[in-house]
Write a structure and sequence with these properties.
Layout: H1 2-22, H2 27-43, H3 47-68, H4 90-98
Helix pairs in contact: 1-2, 2-3, 3-4
Length: 108
C-alpha cells in the first residue's frame, strides 16, 4: 500500500539523517551521507529537500576550503550560504571542532 511505502521511505531518510549527523566529526563521511540523502530525496521527487542536502554539503566543503587554503575568490566558509538557509551554520561548528591542519597541511 502507498502509505506503507511512503512511511518506509521517510524512515529510511530519517535514518540517513541520523547517520550523517553522527559523522559531524568526519567531514568527508558527512558529505558522502548528505549526498546519499539527496539522492534518496530525488528518488521521492523531493527536490527542495535534496537541494538542502547539497547546500549543506557545499557549505561544509566551503568551510573546509576556507580553513585549509583560503582563496579570495571562493565563498567565505559556510556563512556564505547563510542567506539560503540559516541551518547551514551547523556546518561551522563541525569545522572548528574537527579540522586542525598539521604542519603538512593534512587534517586530523
Amino acid at each position: 500500500n502507498q502509505w506503507s511505502t511512503q512511511s518506509t521511505g521517510a524512515m529510511k531518510i530519517d535514518l540517513m539523517y541520523r547517520i550523517a549527523k553522527g559523522y559531524q566529526n568526519s567531514p568527508p563521511l558527512r558529505v558522502t551521507w548528505l549526498k546519499n540523502m539527496a539522492s534518496e530525496h530525488e528518488l521521492w521527487d523531493q527536490k527542495c529537500e535534496a537541494a538542502m542536502c547539497y547546500i549543506h554539503a557545499a557549505a561544509l566543503m566551503s568551510e573546509y576550503l576556507s580553513m585549509v587554503d583560503f582563496q579570495h575568490y571562493l565563498p567565505k566558509g559556510c556563512t556564505a550560504f547563510q542567506s539560503i538557509s540559516s541551518n547551514v551554520l551547523q556546518e561551522c561548528a563541525v569545522m572548528d571542532d574537527v579540522l586542525k591542519p598539521d604542519e603538512d597541511g593534512i587534517c586530523m
